[in-house]
Design brief:
314 residues; single chain; five-stranded mixed barrel; alpha+beta
Length: 314
């Protein structure tokens, strides 16, 4: 069977499913010369009519079934086995592979994967985190439109050792129609979200893709240095530095991906420790702004002004 090889967040992945979302991370050299045993993670496919397996969440294996697609089994942080139904579509298969399955694998491998949108500011990464609906992708899209390159959106890999950083991820944003309308971006030709018909997948935004610096970092399997984390909420405009337990607890509340997996996998304590290490190395802020889109420019200019102030003080 044909395999595709990727170098993503310091992992070598051998996949029996082509992943166009990871095109920027394709590694032809591995495909030309390495055996499958060289891979850190394998993605294997089988097809057949099987009865849905009951869900399983343990430290050794996470297994779940998706109606119309098949069963995903994530084992020991090394293997994602997908048993596909005969009519399963590749796009839908990739959606759950790069989302829930990959998130579970990160927990098995003790990788800090957070729900975030990340842009590049003066060669460093700035991350925006928040619960669903907090506006992470909309803020990133607004900044991309102003010339700040996108580093990643949705499930992003962070590290705190030896320095705080974030790995370049899929160069794509998921945006609601109203956000596209306010940004003046067309929906024609965009891929609709699998579950939400008014949400669209947008790549190469306004001519922007991964920045040159981020591409270099991706090729070297290296993280982009992390400058700051902003936790998003709605309300009166304000940016407040969080410290200590407040920074840690609010980071975990705002940024944890599929938190319901942590306890049954026995990964809760390790996740808190990784978040604690990250919060020790990088400033965490609460960024509050009005829900009205007309207030976005003023809120974002306030945010950008703090970056210039920080740079001047260094």
């Amino acid at each position: 069977m044909t395999r595709w090889y990727y170098g993503y967040a310091q992992l070598h992945i051998a996949s029996e499913l082509c992943l166009p979302e990871w095109e920027a991370f394709a590694v032809p050299a591995i495909a030309n010369g390495a055996s499958r045993t060289a891979a850190d993670v394998e993605v294997r496919l089988t097809r057949g009519v099987t009865a849905p397996h009951p869900p399983l969440f343990t430290a050794a294996e996470v297994r779940f079934h998706v109606a119309g697609i098949g069963t995903y089994s994530i084992q020991a942080g090394k293997l994602i086995q997908i048993t596909l139904l005969p009519d399963a579509g590749e796009r839908e298969t990739r959606l759950f592979l790069l989302g829930s399955a990959w998130g579970a694998l990160c927990y098995q491998r003790d990788i800090l994967a957070l729900h975030a949108s990340v842009v590049e500011v003066q060669g460093q990464a700035v991350a925006f985190c928040g619960v669903s609906g907090a506006g992470k992708s909309s803020i990133a899209a607004w900044l991309v439109a102003q010339g700040y390159p996108l580093i990643g959106d949705d499930l992003c890999h962070f590290t705190s050792s030896p320095h705080a950083g974030v790995y370049p991820a899929i160069p794509r944003l998921k945006l609601w129609r109203n956000a596209l309308d306010h940004l003046g971006w067309e929906t024609e030709g965009l891929q609709r979200d699998h579950f939400r018909m008014e949400k669209f997948h947008v790549g190469a935004l306004a001519g922007q893709d991964l920045s040159r610096a981020a591409i270099t970092q991706a090729a070297a399997h290296a993280p982009v240095p992390l400058r700051a984390i902003y936790l998003l909420s709605w309300g009166e405009l304000g940016i407040v530095r969080l410290t200590g337990l407040a920074a840690l607890s609010q980071l975990i509340e705002s940024a944890t991906y599929r938190g319901e997996l942590l306890e049954p996998m026995g990964a809760m304590a390790a996740h808190w420790q990784r978040c604690f290490a990250l919060a020790r190395h990088v400033p965490v802020y609460r960024f509050t702004r009005p829900t009205d889109w007309s207030a976005m420019p003023a809120a974002m200019q306030t945010l950008i002004a703090t970056w210039h102030t920080d740079s001047a003080s260094k």
